Amino acid sequence: MSSETTLVRKPQPHLLPPERPASSSSAASSDRSRYHTALNNHAREALRQLQIGETPNLHDARGMQLLDQQQDGSEVQEVNLRHGFTAQLSAEELRELNTNFYMYYGEKRHETGGVPKEKVKEKTVQEWRMKDRLKTISAILPLCLNIGVDPPGTYKTHPQARMECWIEPAGPVPGQNHMAAIVKQLQTQYEQLSMRTRYKVLPDPTADEIKKFTTTIRRNARDERVLFHYNGHGVPEPTAGGEMWFFNKNYTQYIPVSMSELQNWLGAPSILVYDCNNAGRLLKNFDVAAEKHIETAEEQRKQDPNVQVPNFGECIQLAACDEDERLPTNPCLPGDLFTSCLTTPIEMAVRFYVLQTPLRKDISLDDCAKIPGRSQERRTPLGELNWIFTAITDTIAWNTLPRPLFKRLFRQDLMVAALFRNFLLAQRVMRAHRCQPLSYPEIPPTHDHPLWASWDLAVEGVLSQLPALQDADEKQIEQIYNHSDFFKDQLTAFEVYLDHGAREEKEPEQLPIVLQVLLSQVHRLRALVLLSRFLDLGPWAVKLALGIGIFPYVLKLLQSQAQDLKAPLVFIWARVLAVDPSCQQDLIKDNGYQYFSSILNPATGLPVSSVSDHRAMGAFIIAMFCRNFKQGQQASHSAELVEACLSYISFEVVDNPVLRQWACLCLSTMWKDYAEAKWAAIKHNGHISMCELVSDPVPEVRASMLYAMSTFIGTTDLTPEIMAIEEEVAMRLLTASKDSCVIVRKELTVFFSVWTRRHMNRIIVAAVEQLYEEIYEQLLQIQQEVEDNETSEQDAVSNGQLRGSKSEVVLAGSSSTATTGTRDSPSHSFERGAARSMSGTTFGGESFAYDDHLSVDSRQLVKRVAKQSLASETPYMAVWLHILILALDADIQVSRNAATIVHAVILAVLAEPALSHFAEDMIDVYSEFTADLELPELPKPTVIPKPQTPAPITPAASDAPKGDGYLSIGMRRTASVAATLANLAFGLPSATDGPTSPPKTVAKLNGSNRQSTTAKSFGDLTKVVEDNAHIANYRRVKFPYPKWWKASQEKIEIKIPLKSDFFDYALEYYKEHQMKHVEEDEPGSKIYNERLWRRNRNEKILEETQNQKEVAGTSRWDQHSGYFNNGFQPSVMTFHQYENHIVIADDYDTIRVWDWERQKPLNRFSNGNAIGSRINEMRLINEDDEALLMIASSDGSIKIFQDYESRQTTSLLTAFNSTTRPEAHSMDFSLSMDWLQTRGEILTAGDSKSIRVWSAHTELLSNEIRTLSSTRVTSITSDQVQGNLICAGFEDGAVRVYDQREHRLKATVRSWREHNSPILNLHMQRGGIRELVSCSQNGTVKLWDALSDTSIHTVRATQQTAVSFSVHEHAPVFAVGTSKHKIRVFNTDGETLSTFEPLETVRPQQKRTNPIAAVAFHPHRMMLAASSREDNFVSLYTCQGLKSLK
Q1: Which residues on adjacent β-strands are paired with residue 1123?
Q2: Which of 1210, 1173, 1161 lies closest to 1188, judged by CA?
Q3: Angle between helix 742-758 and 720-733 (nearest 10)
Q4: Phi and psi (nearest 5°) for 789?
Q5: How far apart are CA 709 and CA 664, in angstroms?
Q6: Could you give the 3-state DSSP secondary structure of residue 1414?
Q7: Is the pTM of this model over 0.85?
Q8: Which residues is 1251 bridged to in the sheet?
Q9: Is residue 69 predicted with pLDDT exceeding 70?
Q10: Strands 136-143 and 1232-1236
Q11: 3-class secondary structure for 239-272?
Q12: CB of 586 closer than 8 Å to CB of 9
């Protein structure tokens, strides 16, 4: 949850690799930002530093000329700056400021709008769990050895392999015969693989015994798996038809059993092991027999659909060799080599190693079975070998097999996993003896995998110590065993992978080994730390770890009391629960959740430096444990846990915003629909403490608090105590409607929807009374106009100047008032419509009767209705008004959410029969206004006959006046239904509108009875808003919706409460990188190189323009360098400091971006203004890197766009309303704005009596300075270095200077009143000597110094009216555009440098007299852009003195 700021330093080539910053600039890598260290120093410091440039230059990279260097470079002298700035900063501080670059609005919340990524389907998340886990509960082991009798057709060598289960049949067996010993040994070997399986060994079985025991085992096993191990060393080879041989009762004949018969007896699922010559015949004929069973089953199902057929596709088969292959006969090997590999892998592997290593003479084959220790004890030599063997074979299978096959063979059944693990050894051993084992499912050859070399090394390490160990055992002395470094080396390899190979999401080979290392206390901590780093790579890594089987291990470790394991375990569990929330159910087992709730205890210590980060993870885990999980809420509920979470939410106490955020979200999941947890929080005043976070400096924390309070409302009965609490909560949260962060306001609309649903009846009362109050105010306004017009009529008649009816006078008076532009007066039709709306309405036992003219009784009744308010000055009225304000929001999602609430409330009003008398007009207008929002159509009230569905309104059909109705006229009040709906209708264009289609809502207004929208601006010299006919023909371009916005969204369902997706958005934090360096920090990466190139380019531009500044103050500025047709009337223009971009806005809401050097258009898009409003100011922010475009409009909105120069990727980044005062929606409102890059602050001012300072760090209103003026602010500027001084020009000609460091009521430090006309523009230079220059409409220009009581210089720039003014940021020049088509350029000494007309050089025959529309200097280059009214061309001029420099 970082601030929006990235502190970027210029690169120092000799420095060490840069440290990763907590956030990145602009759109480079915003979703990798880390907000957990944000705002630790009062939310004003940058987090970390990214060093990507060269050594500091002697001028500021943002264009502030700080030092002046002599040409010989021998001496550096300071420049005397205005306003005392020279003494404010030392040279070291200036150099430090020069080195730092601050980037804003590059966080994930801006890129995503708080919208989570698309949720992964549950099946893909849950696929690591083995839902069809099976057990091999029974095994039948037929041994057809017939010792002493060789079967026919066999060929034996002398000597030959004779041992069966490591027993020599011809050798002595004490106390029993050979067959019994072999049978017992085979069962013992299998029990080493699985003790829970029931074994039945059949020595030399008959065919009848096979049938009997297989059918019995299948009947007892039911649907579980059974094992069938066939040893056919004493019977003939299987036939080509897949028949295996057994004996008759008298052992005089060999009886064949077909594979089809065996399938009938054995059923499925099963495991079949074939250890005999030509075993491949049995495996391949198994499928043939299975197909015949399927054909038979299909015929049986035709007669009986309920017939169940075993699925033989689930059967697993292992064959010792392929068809036409014979088993090895090497006398050094056992006769049942395949069985030995499957059941005694360690002894067989060691023997194989000894046979393959003839140089070792000190180890005999008999010693292979004498390795000391037990296989279950990992600290013994034999146990360690078994442990290493398990890790290696698992790893080979993991890296070789497809994931589904690996899980089926190595994770579904312990017996199957053991057999296939050992089958990999059989592949290696038997292939060395020209025998190829087979399996079904088929697995690829693994005999040459590189990890077998590591196994050989481990075996060598044990055998090298074996003589000493045996000797010590004989002498009964202690011998120290040197353990293998296998696991240590593999962990090192895994660490190397994490350091260098994990970026391409390449799966690590060592992951199964890491799983095995968790079993060791010696390497467990290191393994957990490395596993944490791996899981930090993202959800793909978590799924990979879960798929390998890591979950049971980390679940079991929760029972450990080791303190050093807590930090990595918390980290691992946070990542696991973020990817798979279903693991919450596993925490119930053995009270695993208590491991994390104890971490939240403030008294619990953690052996890590970042304790707060790990407590935040603990809060996240408890939140996920309780989320939508009643058992989790009940299990974790305790007053201590609630109190602990409440102790972490205070900004003054906890400086980690992630901990504050997840403490809020943890409480939200604990008390959602759970009254006991809510009462526990209420007892500790938790709701009060939570509401205090409304001013938290981190937006994510504020949004989390609102999410928590949305879940706090409800559940318990609405008693007076609960009602008082919920009212208090609502009132405390109202200030969040002024939050400039989108995700905060969006969560506020969700809270309001919950609160409205909870208190719907009272909200209905507030809504209706608010409507009555508007009607009352409008009726009084109309009556006053009627009385004024009657007076005027009488005067006119008495003077013989007027003839006509009284009603004509009323209409004429209303019309004339409307066209003056002084106020938004409704027409006379509103009188009739409003009166008819209340006609027949009963209030207090009296009815309102409609009449063309208001009677005294009617006025008194309406007055009583308005004054007998039940909801006035109550939380319900306040909430309702704030909902209406949010419906006017500049962000489309916030406004849509609020409109949904308004829609739902109106539906509830319509459901009340007593309130339906005035609803008909409201429904008609509301349905029309909300058409572009894709909201459902409102139904007609049941008490009124439902009219025919009207045809869609078209521009042609809209010539007829709209029926008089309550909402058909816009209201002056901001918080009104009419204003709300008007904004919704006149706002953003539809997502489906073409790039040049006119707005639908504009077409609806054309020809209607609505008043003309006109305004005055600086003596009517420039028209702010054209008449309706002109607006109707306005060709609106496409609006660049946010990247997260889906234009194809379905129509919204009008249902409250609204659903919040903030929790899903917040938990994505634990799916993202926390430890890994981001790309832009890595030298040589693409982003790093691009940023380095931009820095070098910027420095080059600054160096080139440094010497031009002195020449610019003495040279002519009328050298024409180009022009282009903008396509529409330019009104506001601004240059990029370094890119060849000029951004131009028209009188309404269209922005066009040009490459001024190539005179080529780059992009065009709409700002989405409300109708009647216009673009007032534009600023480019983050210009040192990837710039964003900030636009201020007269509707009070501030919008920021990214990729503004690209047609394909331009998108709205964030938006908010800088004012909610009524003046923002009047036609002559103008919003002044300035941007402070170094402080990250937006300054806004207008008709309100204050200057608002919005922090880009916190996205809050950080300061509100009283202007102490009765007139509005017309221009605002500020000190761009420290940002403490704010200068404002006023409509009365005053210029004032404010200091942010002072109290807002005492911030005025200087006030000048030398201008005698409104201030046209005011600007303080970034560079040079920091001149403060103002220009008034009468053409007077004055230069100021904050240290002086009067102006330091006055220039009479023109005798005409000045209509445009611009000051160069660094050169001592300024330009004035006049009302007579002239542009005059002066230096700061008052000398006239040039006077010319735009386009005069290009088309001198076209003499013009129209006013200049806009002039703008380039911040660094000696370039001036200009345009005039009624002309779409933009002309570019340069300073002629630059030729001398060249």
Answers
A1: 1435
A2: 1210
A3: 160
A4: -70, -35
A5: 9
A6: strand
A7: no
A8: 1265
A9: no
A10: unpaired
A11: CCCCCEEEECCCCCCEEEECHHHHHHHHCCCEEE
A12: no
In sequence order, what are the residues at sequence separation of 6 or more whose Cβ sits closer than 8 angstroms to the Cβ of residue 30? 23, 24, 106, 107, 108, 110, 111
- Asked whether the predicted pLDDT for residue 1264 surpasses 80, the reply is yes
User: Does residue 816 contact residue 825 with C-beta atoms inside 8 Å?
Assistant: no
Evaluate the CA torsion angle 876, 882, 888, 889 in order and state its sign: negative
Report the alpha-carbon distance of residue 1192 to residue 1131 in Å, rounded.
Answer: 13
Question: Tokens 């009302």, residue?
Answer: 1379
Dist. CA 1110–CA 75, nearest whole Å: 19
Q: How far is CA 38 from CA 20, 45, 47, 102, in A?
A: 14, 8, 6, 14
Q: Which structure tokens are listed for 1359?
A: 């005798």
Q: H-helix or E-strand containing 450? A: none
Please, is 963 exposed, middle or buried when counting C-beta atoms within 10 Å of its C-beta (0-12, 13-18, 19+)?
middle
As a whole number, the mean pLDDT across the chain is: 79
Question: What pLDDT does 1145 receive?
Answer: 95
pLDDT of residue 422: 96
Radius of gyration of the chain (CA): 42
Return the structure tokens found at 1310. 């200087």
416's CB contacts (< 8 A; 6+ apart) are 136, 225, 271, 316, 409, 410
User: Tens digit of pLDDT for each residue in 167-213?
Assistant: 988 766 665 688 889 999 999 999 999 988 999 999 999 999 999 99
pLDDT at 77: 44
Angle at 850 between CA 844 and CA 854, to 5 degrees: 95
* Tokens describing residue 1228: 């002559």
Task: Say if residue 1398's pLDDT is above 90.
Answer: no
pLDDT at residue 420 in the model = 95
1276: which strand partners?
A: 1288
CA-based nearest residue to 1037, from 1002, 995, 993, 986: 995
Residues paired with 1377 in a beta bridge = 1364, 1383
CB 1056 within 8 A of CB 904: yes
Q: Where are the alpha helices (DSSP H) in 380-479?
A: 381-400, 403-410, 414-431, 451-475
